[in-house]
Each structure stands twice: as C-alpha cells, then as structure tokens.
C-alpha cells in the first residue's frame, strides 16, 4: 500500500525546499557544503512520512535556492530557516544539520530556543568553526573549481565507496552548488566562533559520526557538542564515512527517527530526555 506522502518543491518562500511526508512532527533538514538537498534522496523512501513532515531546505546558493544572493553567513542561514519555518506555520520543530550546517543547528537553537524541540548534528562542524592549516585551506579552496581535487576530497571523507559514487557526487556538486557561495561558506566555516552563545543550551541533541570519517570523529564531538550541550548524546555508525544518509540510508533513517520519536514521547509525557 502506498504511503500518503508527497514530495513537493517550495516556490513561495525565500528558500527553496523539498517536502516529504505529512505527519504531525515537523523536521527541518539542512545539507552540507558540497551539495544540496538531493544528498538525502536515498534516505527519503526510508523515512516515516505518516509520523513526520520533513522539509529538506536548500540554503542560499544551493539547489532550489541557487540563484539567491546573500551574505552567506551563519546568522543569515539561521534567519532564513526561521523565516521558512514561519512561512510553513511551524511554531515548534526539530532541526537536522550535516557537516557545514551542524553549526547552524546550534545557531538556530540559540536564536530560537523555545522553538527548537531537538537537534540532530550529522558529522558536524561545530560553533567553534573548523580551523584549517594554510595547506588544508588551499586544498579545500581548490575543490571549488578543480574536479580532480573535489574527487579526491569525496574519496577521502567517504567510507571506502566506489569511484562511480565519487563521480556521481562530483557531478551533483557541480550541478547544484554556486561556486561563488562555496567560497564564502568556506570562509564562514573557518572563521565562525559563537561557542559562548551555545554553551549550556538545553536543547536535546543527537550527534552522529561515522567511524571512517577522517576529520570529524568522536573525540572532536566530545570536545565540542558533548562538552557544551548538557542534553547531548553521541552515536558512532560503524563502517561509515562522512555521508551516512547515502552510505547507509535505512540505518540512518532508523537512527534519527528513533531519537525523534523518543523526544516526542518525552514531550508528551512531560519527562526529560533520557540520554544513552
């Protein structure tokens, strides 16, 4: 039996988005630096569209929002996402951020703590930013236009996936990301620092990393998200790199929805989140 879920594109808001599901629990999902909402295409069919309404947003310069100019800052993304939630009629919702937008989950939670029911940060860069060495920064900058450099980056961060998958990721990135915004968001990633704004936030947090992600590992999460957020828990996915929504879609879907349903249940019963 076909589930009553729909995928639709938003044209009546500042940011473009894809909607999946029609459930009562609202979840705003953000993408990484290297691709738009389509990075989640593989996981969408695994999600519970009866329990949740997911909105996969494209921030300025990506996908459905590729033509949108802007300042390309942490504050702008947070403001845009909160405006989108207003336009969707969402007074309270959950947020999911991947890599670059891991820090955006923190900014949104700090900007509107009463509205964010919980947050999920997937292989995330934190509110402390990602301080790269000059050599590493030069390499990341080179991936903006150099296909071979971008291919090497995808190959490095994924958990041993095929060359064909890497080629598809390169094509997706080139088709869905504005080069101009990539450079500005890279600057954001390496200079951001708003730790004082998020330290002590009581928002329930699930932090997810893959055990083959070479840069954003459990030790980094312990120093950042788990140190700052008293209601944070960490889950390490085995045999997985930087893209769990593509490397292990059914497992990733079950993981995030198990957390979300637990948070919803705790809210209904008026109890504090039980961390694992």
TrEMBL record:
The keyword Transport does not apply. GO terms for cellular component: membrane. InterPro entries: AB_hydrolase_1 (IPR000073), AB_hydrolase_fold (IPR029058), AB_hydrolase_sf (IPR050266). Residues 26-244 form the AB hydrolase-1 domain. Coiled coil: none annotated. One of its GO terms (molecular function) is hydrolase activity. Keywords: Hydrolase. PANTHER family: AB HYDROLASE SUPERFAMILY PROTEIN YCLE, MONOACYLGLYCEROL LIPASE. This is Alpha/beta hydrolase. It comes from Pseudomonas viciae.
């Amino acid at each position: 039996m076909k589930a009553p879920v729909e995928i639709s594109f938003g044209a009546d808001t500042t940011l473009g988005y894809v909607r999946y599901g029609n459930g009562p629990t609202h979840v705003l999902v953000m993408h990484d630096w290297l691709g738009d909402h389509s990075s989640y295409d593989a996981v969408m069919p695994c999600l519970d569209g009866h329990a949740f309404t997911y909105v996969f947003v494209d921030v300025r310069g990506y996908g459905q929002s590729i033509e949108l100019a802007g300042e390309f800052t942490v504050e702008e993304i947070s403001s845009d996402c909160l405006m989108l939630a207003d336009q969707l009629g969402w007074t309270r919702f959950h947020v999911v951020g991947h890599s670059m937008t891991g820090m955006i989950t923190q900014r949104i939670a700090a900007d509107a703590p009463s509205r964010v029911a919980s947050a999920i940060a997937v292989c995330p860069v934190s509110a402390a930013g990602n301080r790269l060495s000059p050599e590493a920064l030069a390499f990341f900058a080179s991936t903006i236009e150099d296909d071979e450099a971008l291919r090497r980056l995808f190959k490095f961060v994924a958990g041993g996936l095929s060359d064909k998958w890497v080629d598809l990721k390169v094509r997706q990135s080139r088709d869905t990301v504005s080069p101009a915004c990539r450079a500005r968001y890279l600057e954001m990633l390496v200079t951001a620092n708003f730790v004082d704004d998020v330290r002590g936030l009581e928002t329930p947090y699930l932090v997810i990393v893959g055990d083959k992600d070479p840069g954003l590992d459990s030790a980094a999460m312990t120093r950042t998200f788990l140190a700052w957020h008293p209601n944070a828990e960490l889950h390490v996915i085995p045999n997985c790199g930087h893209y769990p929504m593509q490397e292990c879609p059914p497992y990733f879907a079950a993981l995030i929805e198990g957390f979300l349903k637990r948070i919803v249940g705790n809210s209904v019963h008026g109890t504090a989140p039980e961390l694992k």
